[in-house]
Amino acid sequence: QVHLVESGGGSVQSGGSLTLSCAASGFTMDYYGIGWFRQAPGKEGEGIACYSLFDKRASYKDSVKGRFTLSRDSAMNTVTLQMTNLRPEDTATYYCAVWLAWPYYLCSGYESAQLNRGLDHRGEGTLVTVSS
Known about the structure:
Blueprint: E1 3-8, E2 10-13, E3 18-25, E4 33-39, E5 46-52, E6 57-60, E7 68-73, E8 78-83, E9 92-99, E10 114-115, E11 118-119, E12 121-122, E13 126-131
Parallel strand pairs: 2-13, 10-11
Antiparallel strand pairs: 1-3, 3-8, 4-5, 4-9, 5-6, 7-8, 9-12, 9-13
């Protein structure tokens, strides 16, 4: 059973930085995509960063590219999202996320996948609030 536990998050002013971490466990497959999914109030969720264990590359949604950095510690099986230059529109609940099926485990199309429709697992979430 895949288990994902997020930490980090909080409130910052516009232009600030935050780091989110995710401890992952329970995987039985060799290849999957792991990263972050966020959902703002009243909006559909979106995948924003994905690391593919198949080709060992990180992908980013355009809206966070250049500001967010995803890293993975294979020994600890943790993923970290460093967020810089945060904007009010980044305010959302952030979830550690796992994509298992093709093509999502290659981090293809993960941006629009929703829970049980491409997105297979997510954690409980951590709130990030960015004030202007």
